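Sequence in, structure out.
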Amino acid sequence: MQREIQVKTLFLLRHAKSSWKDIFCSDHDRLLNKRGRRDAPRMARLLSSHNPTPTLILSSTATRAHRTALALQETLADDVPIDLDGRLYHASPHTILDLVREKGAQHDTLIVVGHNPGLEDLIRRLTNEARIVPTAALAEIRVPIDYWGQLDHTVEASLQGFWIPKALPENFD
């Protein structure tokens, strides 16, 4: 009798649109602009309509990513923890995978809030699908593994969904 392989769900969300208004503000500390403040909660509502929903939010420490993660937490449930990690700031796909393996052990479904080009590269490496990932874009990836420690770039994952804010209906609120 063949053993059934478990499936984990990895959501990847690029931070919402940030402001370049303050020319003296560091890249790391940029706030969300008006569009970002609108799109982050919209994408959080979209995510909350999926099953399963994440039970852990891994987020870059950049202000724009953290604020996006807070919108997720507010919509999903306050008890979904946000794990801020500076290594996610402009992380490579390798670093993102390391963090998921390191921090995801108790979670079947988690979300990473991060940056490009790392997120685009990771989607391509895991699913063999090239996607342009604009701000606040959300990808759902199903990974045929029993535990996150098995996750690496050789796993043949599948892209289950890919959403961008401007493709959502205007009345999606």
